[in-house]
Amino acid sequence: MSTRPEGVHDAAGPGTGDAVLIRIGSKYQATPSSVSDLDNVFIAVDANGRIITESRKAATTYFTINATGTVGTASASASVLYGIEVSNPNTVDSFLQIWDAASANITLGVTAPKISYLIPGGQSGTARGGFTRSYPHGIDFATAVMFASSTTPTGSSAPGTGLTLNVEMS
Q1: Does residue 119 fall inside a structural domain?
Q2: What is the pLDDT of residues 8-27, one digit of tens each?
Q3: Which domain holds residue 116?
């Protein structure tokens, strides 16, 4: 395979053995400056061709064995939720409510959660119900990641025993 400078090459193409290099950005500056409408810029893509839109941060985790009817904090700052696993030791269904708000702004049974997950009841404390979900592109939380468990999707009554909660976020 020969090396060619960047640009479109008529002689290269499928089946020729040469790489086809196409310029998708033409404004290069050693020192970054501001970008204006209609400027050509370079874009970063991952190995699958997806555009990388922000710096990736290492995931952090949060764990509790007692997510109850009291508001808890998984993250006190803006975060991206990538995965969640919850188990329910109760024999009746429970719900995990998640808010994008500071705890001072949440009143159980009044403040609508951003997300409310049904966590099925199990057969006993050792045969738990559970829920697992991953979000490859993440769910943005602009303020904080707060949670509480309840017996209804937006309620304030706590289940008999707290839920076990694992959260992956950045």
Answers
A1: yes
A2: 444 444 455 544 444 555 44
A3: 60-169
* Residues 87 and 162 grouped into a single domain: yes
CATH number at residue 147: 2.60.120
pLDDT tens digits, 36-87:
776 666 666 667 776 666 555 667 899 999 999 999 999 999 999 999 999 9
**Averaged pLDDT, 121-137:** 87
The model's pTM is 0.67
Q: What DSSP line would sit under the chain, residue for residue? A: -----SS--TT--TTSSSPP---S-----SS-----TT------B-TTSPBP-S-----EEEEEEEE-SS-EEEESS-EEEEEEEEEE-SSS-EEEEEESS-GGG--TTTSPPSEEEEE---SSSSS-EEEEEEEEEEEEESS-EEEEEESSTT--PPPSSPEEEEEEE-
Domain count, the chain: 2
